[in-house]
Amino acid sequence: METQNLFFFSLCFFLFSLLTGSSHHHHYQLHHGLYGFQPTKLFVFGDSYADTGNTRIKNSSSWKFPYGITFPGKPTGRFSSGRVLTDYIAKSLGLKTPIAYRWTNYEPDHVQYGINFAYGGTGVFKTLLPGPNMTTQIDIFQSLINDGSPIYNTSDLQSSLALVTLSGNDYSAYVAKGGSQTFGTTENGAKPSPISSFFVEIRRDLETFINLVVNQLKTNLERIHGTGVKKVAVAALQPLGCLPGRTIQNSFQQCNDTDNKAATYHNRLLTEAVANLNNGTNDSPFVILDLYDSFISVLQNKSGSVKFETPLKPCCLGISSEYSCGDIDDKGEKLYTVCENPENAFFWDMYHPTQAGWHAAFLALNSPL
Ligand SMILES: *[C@@H]1O[C@H](CO)[C@@H](O)[C@H](O)[C@H]1NC(C)=O
Ligand SMILES: *[C@@H]1O[C@H](CO)[C@@H](O)[C@H](O)[C@H]1NC(C)=O
Ligand SMILES: *[C@@H]1O[C@H](CO)[C@@H](O)[C@H](O)[C@H]1NC(C)=O
Ligand SMILES: *[C@@H]1O[C@H](CO)[C@@H](O)[C@H](O)[C@H]1NC(C)=O
Ligand SMILES: *[C@@H]1O[C@H](CO)[C@@H](O)[C@H](O)[C@H]1NC(C)=O
Ligand SMILES: *[C@@H]1O[C@H](CO)[C@@H](O)[C@H](O)[C@H]1NC(C)=O
C-alpha cells in the first residue's frame, strides 16, 4: 500500500509539475511512479469523461450548442463547456490531446500523440446508448498494432500511457433495466435515466453487478498493458450521488450518500484489482486517478484551487425534466437555460463537469492520499 501511495503521489506530482511548467521532477530520484517516464503518446479508452469527439454527430448532445462554448467556442464532441480530463492529462504530459479515432486518417502526423478511443455513453458492458464498449475499443487499438504495417512499434508503446475512464454508464443501464442487466440487449438510442433509487441500499444483486463490472474492467486494463503500453492510469468512479442528475431531487443542495456508498464500493474493488495487477511487477504499471476524492475535495472547497459558489448546481439545464442541455424545439427555440459564466460552475450538465470543473478536479488529484 505504502509503495502504491507513493507511486500515486509521484504520478500526481509529476502531472502537476508538467502542467505548471515547474521542473521539480528533475530534482527527485524516485524508484517508483512516472518520474523518469516521459510518455510520448497517450491512448485513451472509456466514456464521455474522456471522449474528445468520437460520438456520432446526429445523436449526441456533445455536438450541440452550447457544448463547447468555453472552448473552443463551438461543439467538438466533448461532453462539457470545454476541455475534459483527457485534455488536462495530455497537457500535463507535454502532449497535444490525442486525436479521436473516428477523425483520424492514421497518417503519422495524426497519430503521433496517440489516439483517443473513448466513446460517450459506453461502459464495459452494453449500456443504454449505442457505441463501442471498452472491449471493442481495445480491439480497435489492438488491430492497429497487430496490423501488417503497424502504426506503432514496440518502442512507441513502451513510451506510452493509457488513460481509462469508467464513469457509471453500466450502472445507469443496470438501474434502468430494474437491476436485471442482460448483457445482450439494448434499447438503442434510449436516453439514459438518472442513477435512480436503485442505489437506495446496496442490495446484494447490485453488489454482484459491481463485482462483474470491476472484474471486466480489470480484464480490460490487463489487456491494454498486454499490448505493450507501459503505464495504465484508470479513473476511480466519481461520487455518483453528487451528480446533478441525482441532486436535482433536493434542488442541488446535497449529495446522496447512498449512491456515494455504491461508488465507494466500486472504488474499493478497483483498488484491490489494481493492487493485484501490480503484485509481482517491479514497475507498478497500474495507477488509480482518484476522481472520487478530487471531486469531493473541490465540491467541499478543500482543494485549495477554485471555489465554486453553488458547486452542485449545473450550468446548463433543461427547462423541464423532459429536456436536456442542448435540446431545441421544431422552431429552434432553446429548451434549456445556460448560466452566465460556465467558468463559475463545477457541473456543466446532469452528469459532466464544466471545463473549470475538470480543471479544478484535475488539480485536486495532486493531493497525496
Ligand atoms: C462488447 O461488444 C461486443 C460487440 O457488440 C460484444 O461482442 C462483446 O460481447 C461486448 N463485450 C462485453 C464484455 O460485453
Ligand atoms: C519506432 O517508430 C518510431 C516512430 O513512431 C521511430 O522513430 C523509431 O525509430 C521506431 N523504433 C524502432 C525500434 O523501430
Ligand atoms: C441514433 O439513435 C437512433 C435511435 O434514436 C438509433 O437507431 C441509431 O442507431 C443511432 N445512430 C447512431 C449513429 O448511433
Ligand atoms: C438518496 O436517494 C434515495 C433514493 O432517491 C432517497 O430515498 C434518499 O433519501 C436519498 N438520501 C439523501 C441523503 O438524500
Ligand atoms: C500478491 O501475491 C502474493 C503471492 O502470490 C499473494 O499472497 C498476495 O495475496 C497478493 N496480493 C495481492 C494484493 O493481490
Ligand atoms: C465554497 O466557497 C464559496 C466561495 O467562497 C462559497 O460561496 C461556498 O459556500 C463554499 N462552499 C462550501 C461547501 O463551503
TrEMBL record:
Q: Quick one: signal sequence residues?
A: 1-21
- Which GO molecular function annotations are given, in alphabetical order? hydrolase activity, acting on ester bonds
InterPro entries in the cross-refs: GDSL, SGNH_hydro_sf
* Alphabetized UniProt keyword annotations: Hydrolase, Lipid degradation, Lipid metabolism, Signal
| Gene Ontology BP terms | lipid catabolic process
Q: Which family does it belong to?
A: Belongs to the 'GDSL' lipolytic enzyme family.
Q: What PANTHER family does the annotation carry? A: GDSL ESTERASE_LIPASE (PTHR46020:SF32), OSJNBB0059K02.9 PROTEIN (PTHR46020)
What is the designated name of this protein? GDSL esterase/lipase At5g03610-like
